[in-house]
TrEMBL record:
A GO term, aspect molecular function: oxidoreductase activity, acting on the CH-OH group of donors, NAD or NADP as acceptor
Domain 3-beta hydroxysteroid dehydrogenase/isomerase: 6-264
Family: Belongs to the 3-beta-HSD family.
A Pfam match: 3Beta_HSD
High-level lineage: Eukaryota, Fungi, Fungi incertae sedis, Mucoromycota, Glomeromycotina
Positions of transmembrane segments: none
InterPro entries: 3Beta_OHSteriod_DH/Estase, Lipid_A_modif_metabolic_enz, NAD(P)-bd_dom_sf
This protein's name: 3-beta hydroxysteroid dehydrogenase/isomerase domain-containing protein
């Protein structure tokens, strides 16, 4: 059966790569749904709308008889008001689910996050899909991603709809707005000589093309008699690395090598971050140094992706080193 794809958030960072992979392999029936159109002028159908508006979503799904929805839309993970996360990640996801069920969509692939099982306090060491949700989510982003994931799982089987949730970890790549720009900002601010923590903690990352690849594997394998319907899958590059080793490798792409390293404990980092956030609150300027970033840089946070390999046939198609080189090269070209 020919699939008709709708990529919700298809003009965004991950969604754009999913569309690109579909085009590369020769799929023709592709549409995107997003707040604005930026890419793929001739190759795909574009619907401009708001995921929080049920009618906008239904219009996009019904007009092209969509059979597969891949829902990647989400606010970025930091600095967004809590109510926006609830509106998009929960209410918006419910609109997508309800519209899929009402319109007889066969497949829904949802972009979740590996951090739904991370509370920012307890370390994740070789964690997998059996790891339970924490008692308290680390932040509003992960709390709402958890709620969205639960909604998607509970929708599996309704009116023939089959669902899968993909939990990528630390997506980065060309045009990402977090890892590479964050590392460059530290370098440009002259802060690269500082290190928070002992750098013994391992962290997983996912090159964006690998995350997109995993979504398409899930879509291709999602059938009524498959083992993946209603399941969640953690996706990474499969190569955990000490946090500061990766950051320094990014800096090296720009020929920046700190001459000396001044180390601060995690506790000291929290104090400085709290002061920076306090000053930011009164100045009205976003702080580049937050308690979230201290947690992110000092905890072990790596995963076992055996389930994705076994049931999806997932293997990274771009390794970590090559992914960093491509992301940095793209940034250099854009300047």
């Amino acid at each position: 059966m020919t699939e008709n794809y709708l990529i919700i958030g298809g003009e965004g960072f991950l969604g754009r790569w999913i569309v690109d992979l579909l085009l590369r392999r020769g799929d023709k029936n592709i549409s995107t749904f997003d707040k604005e159109q930026r890419y793929f002028d001739q190759e795909v159908i574009h619907y401009v709308g708001d995921i929080c508006n049920y009618q906008d979503v239904t219009n996009a799904i019904s007009k092209t008889n969509v059979t597969t929805v891949i829902h990647t839309a989400s606010p970025p993970h930091d600095g967004i008001p809590t109510e926006v996360y609830w509106k998009v990640n929960v209410e918006g996801t419910k609109n997508v689910i309800d519209s899929c069920i009402a319109n007889g969509v066969k497949k829904l692939i949802f972009t979740s996050s590996s951090s739904v099982i991370y509370d920012g306090v307890h370390e994740l060491i070789n964690a997998d899909e059996t790891t339970p949700y924490p008692e308290k989510a680390m932040d509003a982003y992960n709390e709402t991603k958890t709620e969205g994931e639960k909604l998607v799982k509970s929708a599996n089987g309704k009116n023939g709809l089959l669902t899968v949730s993909i939990r990528p970890c630390g997506i980065f790549g060309p045009n990402d707005r977090q890892l590479i720009p964050g590392a460059i900002k530290v370098m440009e601010y002259g802060q690269s000589k500082f290190q928070i923590g002992d750098n013994y903690n391992l962290v997983d990352w996912t090159y964006v093309e690998n995350a997109a690849h995993a979504h398409l594997l899930a879509s291709d394998k999602l059938t009524a008699d498959s083992q993946i319907a209603g399941e969640v899958f953690i996706i990474t590059n499969g190569t955990p690395i000490p946090f500061w080793d990766l950051i320094r490798f990014i800096w090296a792409q720009f020929n920046h090598f700190p001459s000396r390293i001044i180390k601060f404990s995690k506790f000291t980092g929290f104090i400085f971050a709290s002061l920076a956030e306090f000053a930011s609150y009164f100045s009205g300027k976003e702080s580049g140094f937050t308690r979230f970033r201290v947690k992110f840089t000092t905890n072990n946070r790596y995963f076992d992706i055996t389930k994705a390999k076994r049931l999806l046939g997932y293997e990274p198609i771009v390794d970590l080193e090559e992914g960093i080189k491509r992301a940095c090269a793209s940034l250099m070209k854009s300047k």
